[in-house]
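Design job #97: recover the sequence.
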């Protein structure tokens, strides 16, 4: 997989695929349009297919009495697919969504705390992760998801996905719009390369943030959490 191809090289390759002049002086006016086509092609490929090599785990150290946490730079909220908490010596999946059922049990707005952390959600006002309950001790969480695309704006910017695949996909779209005779041929080349890179049947599956498609039942005192102030001995 030829990742990390510079935008300048992909623009030159795209010009060649669609039959544009390769003279730099003659291609200045079309540069922005070609860069846009490449960005769009890479974005479509990213959204429509599974890319296991982009999957990452990012740890989060939760701290006693701390409710909100920043996101990892390379794993923003939109890309998170799973969240796990270390409970005892085992990883357990965390549910997504904090609302009335949780606050009826342990109301974070009133500073009520508990352990272990069982749920999380995005706080749009702060652009941070909120965990529930507010932890009474330090702990460890893990978030899994797909790294976001790198920008393709400057000539030195590099592709996140396979550069030749992005070029062929963009070229096939441009040729189809102009009803060029070789549009089908280039489209077939793009499809063949995609199949080679991913294998058949690896379309991205829908997911529910939090890692489970099942509804999260209300938390159970003394089973799902230990209320603050209760003697565990």
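Job complete. Output follows.
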């Amino acid at each position: 997989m030829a990742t990390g191809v510079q935008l300048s090289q992909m623009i030159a390759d795209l010009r060649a695929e669609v039959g544009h002049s390769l003279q730099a002086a003659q291609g200045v006016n079309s540069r922005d349009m070609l860069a846009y086509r490449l960005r769009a092609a890479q974005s479509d490929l990213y959204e429509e297919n599974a890319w296991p090599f982009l999957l990452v785990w990012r740890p989060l150290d939760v701290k006693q009495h701390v409710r909100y946490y920043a996101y990892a730079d390379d794993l923003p909220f939109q890309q998170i697919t799973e969240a796990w908490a270390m409970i005892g010596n085992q990883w357990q999946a965390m549910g997504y969504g904090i609302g009335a059922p949780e606050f009826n049990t342990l109301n974070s707005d009133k500073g009520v705390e508990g352990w272990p952390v069982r749920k999380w959600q995005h706080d749009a006002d702060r652009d941070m992760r909120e965990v529930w309950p507010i932890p009474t001790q330090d702990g460890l969480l893990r978030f899994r998801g797909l790294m976001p695309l790198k920008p393709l704006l400057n000539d030195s910017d590099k592709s996140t996905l396979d550069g030749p695949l992005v070029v062929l996909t963009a070229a096939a779209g441009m040729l189809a719009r102009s009803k060029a005779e070789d549009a089908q041929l280039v489209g077939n080349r793009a499809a063949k390369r995609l199949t080679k890179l991913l294998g058949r049947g690896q379309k991205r599956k829908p997911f529910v943030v939090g890692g489970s498609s099942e509804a999260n039942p209300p938390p159970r005192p003394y089973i799902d959490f230990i209320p603050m102030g209760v003697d565990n001995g």
